[in-house]
Amino acid sequence: MNDVQTNAEVSTVRNAAGVEYSRRLNQRQAQAARLQRRHLCLGNIRIAVFIGIIVLSWVTGKTGSPSVYWLLAPILLFIALVIAHRRVVRAMTMAKRAMDVYSRGLARMEDRWSGSGETGEDFKDPLHLYAEDLDILGEGSLFQLLSTARTNMGSRCLSAWLLAHASVPEIQERQAAVIELKNKLDLREDLAVTGESERIAVDPEALALWAQEESGLKDGRWWAASLAVCNIAALVFGFMVLWTPFILLLLVNGVIMFRSRHRLEKVFTGISETHRNLDSLAQLLRRIEIEKFESPILQQLQARLITHGLAPSVCIARLDTLADLDDSRHNWFVRLFDVPLLYSLQVAFALERWRREYGKGIEAWLLVVGEIEALASIAAYAYEHPEDPFPEFVPDTNESSFEGEALGHPLLPAEKCVRNHVKLGGKSQVLLVSGSNMSGKSTYLRVVGINAVLAMMGAPVRATRLRLSRVAIGASMRVSDSLQKGISHFYAEIKRLRQVVDLSASQPALFLLDEVLQGTNSHDRRAGTEGVLRTLIQDGAIGLVTTHDLALTSLEEVFPDRVRNAHFQERFEDDRLSFDYRLRPGVVTTSNGLELMKSIGLDVP
């Protein structure tokens, strides 16, 4: 009934992916080292040219010879060196980011990933029906293992897919996209390194809200530009003849700026926060726009980018330029000319024009980036774990099912992961797992649950085979009390059980109940568990229940065609406990409570 993949088998299957990652890592390391040398060389040449310009300027000023025009050549050379140096630094930065990409990929393949990368802590919901129980978010979580996203949109999309189940057609579309993306290593690398910023901190909600907000500022760029030109002409006229026209125009501009101040505030409010890293976002969009996709969902996502006849990367680049102009308004030199040139007003007109023309499309563009990054994260996992297959979904039937062969836990190192089979559905609608402490009951529930999460989001599963129907997951495993809210552990547990029962009443469900009703006495636990299981069975739900109370194992007799007993066991030899973590049929016949107490020196019979 059990199956374990050996380390040799896992190593053989992953070898090709590991070799490719190592090859690319070595290439990027060599590239970074070469660019580092070029960076130092160009830096030294820049210093030498700059010193040469200073010396030549001093000689020119001292002697009047050579001609000042001789300075043009070294100045132009210096400018060219600055441009070349920036390109080298940019390329070196991207090479180092690529090194990190493949180093992290190798760490994931070698089970050294925990403790690095984004945790998804910000997306936690304490009321979620399985996230905390199955380690979906947080340190050492499934999110941390999967996520390669650089944007808030990608992280948010991935967390949403982990926390809510897709329909079967959506799952199958995502599987096809993942299969295509997993071999597009160049695209996945570019998504991870493109742009000036390592992390693209665009706030999608704030940016979309700003893009669709109405300030009431009507377009007046032509008369504003005309007034600015008139002011320049009046300024020149003032220096040559009379200052009166300039002063009058300055007063007119001042009145215009004063009357427009509230509308300008609406336009500029929050720009510094919402318009961060737009240059990197534009480059990311550009990379997605030029890629050729074959799977339907990727083609649909790419098609959603073209909403205004202009590439989103160009639109975002324009917005980035306007955001830079807004930022320049705080420069003291620009402020001197703000009123004469109506600078702030003209920037506001340009921002408003951008909002009118492209504002409605930005939300769709950001969602596309998020979905592409989420799919790329799953694709990276699929590439790095080629032995993990995609699950198969059974046609719609009246009965839920979940049949897995050699299921393992994706968050456990391969050498420590003992795999077990599971079959839920039909006459095995409920599996009642008994066993002593630390024997593996809770881990078994998490193995089933986390693979169900992977399956329902469109990812490969840690198994040799998994066949299931679409199910919603409800778990009661890490329920805790709350001193602040005055809630006991038992009350918190029965509230969670109520949520699981309600879930099963509304849709096909997979329930995972660990040490069910442990907060009450044996009699109430037995009666309560029977009542809960009766309701869940009637609703057609499938699931697992663990217990160390052997009185519950008699429920197989109450529901002979629906409940089946299984167990984990241990051995106590030479004052040491040992576990094989293998699931066996029937009721457990051993216990370790007394032996554990004796082993630490407690005086028990």
Question: Can you describe what's shown?
Answer:
With 605 residues, this protein is of the alpha/beta class. The chain has 3 domains: 1-110; 214-278 and 306-365, no CATH class; 392-599, Rossmann fold. The chain contains 22 helices and 12 strands. The protein has helices spanning 7-63, 72-109, 142-146, 152-163, 168-182, 185-193, 204-212, 221-240, 244-259, 261-268, 271-274, 278-290, 296-303, 312-328, 332-336, 343-358, 362-384, 441-457, 489-506, 522-538, 555-558, 593-599; strands at residues 392-393, 402-407, 420-424, 430-434, 465-468, 472-476, 509-513, 542-547, 563-567, 570-573, 576-579, 584-585. The strands form 3 sheets. A 6-stranded mixed beta sheet has the order 6-7-8-4-9-12, sandwiched between helices. Strands 1-5-2-3 form a 4-stranded mixed beta sheet, covered by helices on one side. A hairpin with a 2-residue loop joins strand 10 (570-573) and strand 11. Helix 12 (278-290) runs antiparallel to helix 14. The model is unreliable at 1-7 and 481-486 (pLDDT under 50).
